[in-house]
UniProtKB/TrEMBL annotation:
Residue ranges of every copy of the Peptidase M48 domain listed in the record: 16-207
Family, per entry: Belongs to the peptidase M48 family.
UniProt cofactor(s): Zn(2+)
Family matches, as CDD domains: M48C_Oma1_like
Protein's name in the database: Metalloendopeptidase OMA1, mitochondrial
Ranges annotated as spanning the membrane: none
Length: 212
């Protein structure tokens, strides 16, 4: 709230009102889920070109206007918000924190061994850098991608119960892929990213549509 204090849209802004209505609609249609009904959902819309949205574990929803500008309709917005709310319902922040603690402990043990075997500072620092990068590539980023895929699935279920057209999900990520290509933005290979690639996301959501 401190970081975005000067960028928050007033509650009278139509963009805030749209996000607020969709969040409350999702909460109402999924009130039979205790993890949804036990949370007091509140909305903050940030004036920023950043294409992002996130939800804190306590139900604070943050939507950036850059994301809103890339959303075609209310169905896509419902699916995006359902995805972000799913992260909160599934306790993904706590899961990532737990993984971080485990990796920190393993890193400490490994670094102790590196320093013991390579007492020279330069070699030890190089070993520490290599260990950090390997930890990200082998554990942190794959785990983050798995959580994203899980939130895609649960978010789509939340959106379906809110009567959104779930076919809008894969369409949105196809649009994002086209947008990145037209803008010339360099897209990282999936194995270097914390999120699934747009193409893999489209394929997963397509597979989920009959089920949801």
């Amino acid at each position: 709230m401190e970081e975005f204090a000067e960028l928050l849209l007033p509650v009278t802004d139509v963009r805030h009102q749209v996000v607020e209505r969709v969040v409350q609609h999702l909460a109402q249609r999924n009130k039979d889920v205790p993890e949804v009904s036990n949370v007091s959902w509140s909305v903050h819309v940030v004036q920023s070109p950043t294409v992002n949205a996130f939800v804190l574990p306590n139900g604070e929803v943050f939507m950036f206007t850059g994301m809103l500008e890339n959303v075609t309709d209310v169905h896509q917005l419902t699916i995006i918000l359902g995805h972000e709310m799913a992260h909160a319902l599934l306790g993904h922040s706590a899961e990532q924190a737990s993984l971080s603690h485990i990796l920190d402990l393993l890193s400490l043990l490994l670094l102790s061994a590196i320093w013991a075997l390579c007492p020279r500072d330069s070699l030890a620092l190089l070993g520490q850098w290599v260990q950090s990068k390997l930890s990200q590539l082998m554990f942190s980023r794959p785990y983050s991608r798995r959580l994203e895929a899980e939130a895609d699935q649960v978010g789509l279920q939340l959106a379906a119960k809110a009567c959104a057209d779930v076919r809008a999900g894969p369409v949105f990520w196809q649009q994002m892929e086209i947008r990145d290509r037209l803008s010339g933005e360099l897209s990282l290979p999936e194995w270097l990213s914390t999120h699934p690639s747009h193409r893999n996301r489209v394929a997963q959501l397509d597979r989920l549509i009959p089920q949801v």
